[in-house]
Write a structure and sequence with these properties.
153 residues, alpha/beta, six-stranded mixed beta sheet, 4 helices, 20% strand
């Protein structure tokens, strides 16, 4: 079972558009990462997003590339400042789930799952990038399996 965590793509500033949709650069980067994931045959059972426009747009791009367009939906509890523990405890074994949300939530969830502490940083996310976590066999422990980021700097 894999858990794919995605920080939404780069978005417009609030003073440009109050809904803060993806910018042209954000769309292009998410398209590139999603196509690369598809080229690697990443399989997703479902995609859940925070409900914010930029997260929805990011989820829809991934869904289109990963043939999951009919399995996208909003999820409570994954906004930027939400507590990571309820989500960590609710992740079901046996199906690949992608969560599309915001910082600091995505980094804190990764830290909680991998190190048991949301207040340390075990992974630095990038807008539009994927962090793939894998539940270790016969265990409740998680490890970072791979990442795919728009930039290597």
């Amino acid at each position: 079972m894999a858990l794919f965590l995605v920080q939404h793509g780069k978005n417009l500033k609030k003073d440009v558009n109050p809904e803060q949709p993806l910018s042209d650069e954000g769309i292009a980067e998410v398209e590139r990462i999603a196509q690369t994931a598809a080229n690697y045959a990443v399989q997703i059972a479902e995609i859940r997003h925070s409900g914010k426009k930029r997260a929805l747009q990011t989820a829809e791009i991934f869904a289109r590339h990963l043939n999951a367009a009919d399995r996208v939906g909003e999820m409570n509890g994954i906004k930027a400042l939400d507590d990571v523990v309820p989500i960590a405890q609710s992740v079901e074994a046996g199906r690949n789930l992608m969560l599309v949300g915001h910082l600091p939530f995505m980094e804190r969830l990764t830290s909680y799952l991998v190190a048991g502490n949301p207040d340390i940083t075990v992974m630095k996310f990038q807008n539009g990038g994927i962090v793939c976590l894998d539940r270790l066999e016969n265990s409740n422990e998680w490890a970072i399996k791979w990442t795919l980021m728009p930039n290597i700097r």
